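#lab-general

N.A. 3:47 PM
ok so I finally got the sequence cleaned up, no stray characters, all 219 residues accounted for. can someone with queue access submit it? mine expired

B.Y. 3:52 PM
send it over

N.A. 3:53 PM
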Amino acid sequence: MSFRTKSLVCASFAGLSMLAAMPVVAQDRSGLYVSAYGGSSSLASTSLTESRATSSSVSGRGSFGTGIGLGGAFGYRYGNGWAAELAWDYRSHDVKRIGGTPVQGDFASTTAFINGYYRFQKLGIVRPFVGAGVGYVTEMDMDLSRDGSDKEYSRRRGLAVQAILGGEVDLTDRWSVSADLRWAKMGSGSFKSTSAGATLSGNPKYQPISVNLGLTYQF
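B.Y. 4:20 PM
back already:
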């Protein structure tokens, strides 16, 4: 795990500890809501090996550029600070190097989550919240381009978990904006290639951290 990733994770847990000590009586309106969010995403380096029948293999730590994250959710607020939702998340990150070899490509995922939230009392105009979720990996794929050819590796299925820390500001009685930090971890598994003679091994770990802005409408 990179220093930047460690710092973000530590900051997340520190924030969760601070929020846990806040008053637990939250004024909140009950009802259904929909939300959309997106922002920047980063991915911790991971060990992997890519082999091809037509060229030499590359092996080592895979390093990734800053990526993007998008998502949407449909949920229900219970009026006592608690909320539950169904969400769909997309993450994509550029692949920069594998070991000492420069490569081009991307490492992406789509995941369905069930999330639970608690919204605390407002601090000024901001209502802090914490959340956690468990999900199902609908698809994870890595596209790699080197030596003049492109290869695609993918896998489906597997569990995912995430932790969420953020704050929300009301615009009207129905519209609100939010900012949050999300840390997710996808279960490891083997990848299959769409091309004969190509393999991706090492069960690359996928642990994105994203910073998002969101918009929510409550019915």
